[in-house]
Amino acid sequence: MSGKMGKIVEWIDYRLPIFSFLKHLGEYRTPKNLSYMWSFGSIAGIALVIQIITGLFLAMHYSPNADKAFQSVEYIMRNVNYGWLIRYIHAVGASMFFVAVYAHIARGMYYGSYKSPREMVWFMGIFIFLLMMATAFMGYVLPWGQMSFWGATVITSLFSAIPVIGETIVQWLWGGFAVGDATLNRFFVLHYLFPFVIVAVVIIHIIALHIHGSNNPTGVEVKTKKDTVPFHPYYTIKDFVGFGAFFLIFAYFVFYQPNYLGHPDNYIEANPMVTPEHIVPEWYFLPFYAMLRAIPDKLGGVMTMLASILILFLLPWLDSSKVKSGRYRPVFKVCFWIFIGNVMLLGYIGGKPPEGIYVILGQFSTFYYFTHFLLILPLLGKYEKTLEIPKSISDDYAK
Amino acid sequence: MQNKIFKAIYVTILAAVSNLAMASSQLPPKQIEWSFDGIFGYFDKTAIQRGFKVYKEVCQTCHSLKYTSYLDLKKIGFSKDEIKAIASESQVDAAPNEEEVVKKRPAEITDMFVPAYPNEQAARSANNGALPPDLSLIVKARPDGANYLYSILTGYSNHPHANVVIDPGMYYNPYFANQQIAMPPPLSQGLVTYDNNESPSIEQMSKDLVHFLHWTAEPEMEARKLMGIKVLLYLIAFTAIFYIAKKRIWKNVK
Ligand code: HEM
Fold first, then answer.
1. I need a labelling partner for A29 at 20 to 30 A (CA). Which of A169, A315, A341, B249 fits?
2. Model-level pTM?
3. Cα of A247 from ligand 1 centre, angstroms
4. ipTM of this predicted complex?
5. CA geometry: angle B251, B252, B254, nearest 5 deg
């Protein structure tokens, strides 16, 4: 750029480097061997944007009032132009967001993306995950159906397990002596707020990522420029293929199975006098719900559930293997898939009543979940015989 | 020690099995093919209209339909005059007059369906303490709702399973939780007269009611499924084009 324009650009950039930032985006380079498993990051990003936009339109018609909430959602479904579309995109979108994020996390675990020098990227990711869970939980309360009400009651009551101050905290959360109007109101406010906090953490997540760049299927760091391609157009185009596939599944659910991932009871208006037979959270919480119920003691259950997520923070140290990628770790590979299978089993158990075989199974699965992190990963780091890793990304790519 | 473990496993398996047996004491719904099923699902308007007739003449005495307005009937093929006539059969509270007395007036087309009972207490006291639920969303509010509703309506029988004890004021219906329901069998052969050749058997009326109540539960269904086809076709093209573009752009990366 030259002349007057160039001067203006220079003037601005000296004070606020937005043009340097755009230049960074234009020049940002990425390993050339990323598979489609690396699409889930941007897919999760787009899912977040979709939630915010549809949520905004829902909020224009929604009424966060215990007497009106259910009715206002039905009003959206029936009388707002394309209200059904907006609501179904939002409701299905929450599930799709979790699908993307779970795939994204699993990718990170398989390829060791949490290892040096990307620990901060990983930590920000866990914060996003925690915020998402809080957001989705509060969102599910808003339509004020039976599952909304009873789910909120069960989950908020968990805080009463905290010794001494537990009861006080629960009442403080509720804004009264039971889940009610005050609870609904504050959940709406927080449900509106949190996604923007998520956006902020996502930005930090990406800043941290751009310091050292993406990991890749070999786990070998970029050595020369030859190992990389510019993000644009190579990965913009590849991400769009991912978006297309993601939107196809998304649209199938929105248009043909919009309520499949929800619970029929949530089409019954909340009624504090009638307890549903089984209170089950949304599918994406089921593995954690199973771990919560696996421990017979309330406080113990809550601690276990918390620990199951917080343990992810220790992953960079628990997995001490020098080799990053699961591709070159034959035993780890098997353990990884057993771990994934076990989480799915936990999800299955979380959806079943806590009786009979499910109790024992849940306890065993919970035990195994922690065994994977606390025993298997450290031992593998020490004793596993890893395969030979390629010299460089290009070396591997040429094969 | 080992014995104890085996015993524990045995007991839990036993519990699980008996648990299954308990759950299956309520029969799974009968499976019917509906016009509204599947990607090309559509509203069968004549069936919906017949269903509305049965609802109006039979179910309305006990069940409200509070998310549907009289004007909505236009979408299932009633004319404005017909709707006016239907609405005026029910009475609603008029706006208070100058002396603040609330009088009754005939319902207008913009009113919501007028409920049978003014409140929950009235509904309960007229039904032995049981509450007839609002039916607007019933098809969405039960698992496999359409088939479930059909099964409940056609599932009454005078011959309870040997080990089911029917409480007083209850009716045997194996498709309902605990196999007994507080709703007296609402339908009987020939209860309403159909204009066309359709015979008003219990099965036919039940099917028509399902069509009608499915429509009240998701009036957007037809528009949704039509739009879905267009969106899916668009997305298939979108994905294919980007896939081809991706292949081309990446061709030179060695
Ligand atoms: C992280 C992003 C978000 C997630 C995961 C999320 C999740 C959810 C979920 C699971 C529901 C219940 C859907 C249902 O069953 O009906 C919901 C409802 C709702 N959300 Fe969100 N949401 C997000 C962002 C937002 C934002 C940014 C807004 C406002 C600007 C918003 C406004 C609403 C409203 C008004 C409802 C109630 C209407 C309804 O239930 O359909 N959401 N949300």
1. A315
2. 0.93
3. 19
4. 0.92
5. 105
Residue B34, min C-alpha distance to chain A (Å): 15
Residues 6 or more apart in contact with residue A200 via CB below 8 angstroms: none
Q: A201: which 2 tokens?
A: 């953490």
Give me the amino acid identity at A317. Answer: W
Q: What are phi and psi of A145, to 5 degrees?
A: -90, -175
Q: Chain A to chain B, count of Cβ pairs less than 8 Å apart?
A: 101
DSSP 3-state assignment of A68?
coil
Residues of A in contact with B140 (CB under 8 A): 259, 264, 267
Candidate from A90, A128, A129 with most ligand 1 atoms within 8 A of CB, to mutate:
A90
Among all chains, which residue has been given the structure tokens 């929604």? A62
Closest chain A CA to residue B72: A78
Residues of B with CB under 8 A from a CB of A: 8-9, 12-16, 19, 39, 67, 133, 136-137, 140-143, 145, 177, 217-220, 224-225, 227-228, 231-232, 235-236, 238-240, 242-243, 245-246, 249-250, 253-254
Phi-psi region of B88 (alpha: psi -120 to 50; beta: other; left: phi over 0): alpha
Going along chain B from its start, the domains and CATH numbers come out as 2-68+112-219 (1.10.760.10)
| DSSP-based helix, strand, coil % in chain A, nearest 5 | 75, 0, 25
pLDDT tens string, chain A, 399 residues long: the values are: 568 999 999 999 999 999 999 999 889 999 999 999 999 999 999 999 999 999 999 999 999 999 999 999 999 999 999 999 999 999 999 999 999 999 999 999 999 999 999 999 999 999 999 999 999 999 999 999 999 999 999 999 999 999 999 999 999 999 999 999 999 999 999 999 999 999 999 999 999 999 999 999 999 999 999 999 999 999 999 999 999 999 999 999 999 999 999 999 999 999 999 999 999 999 999 999 999 999 999 999 999 999 999 999 999 999 999 999 999 999 999 999 999 999 999 999 999 999 999 999 999 999 999 999 999 999 999 999 999 999 999 999 988
Amino acid letter, residue B57: E
Rounded to 10°, the helix A181-212/A119-141 angle is 160
> Which amino acid appears at position A68 of this protein?
K
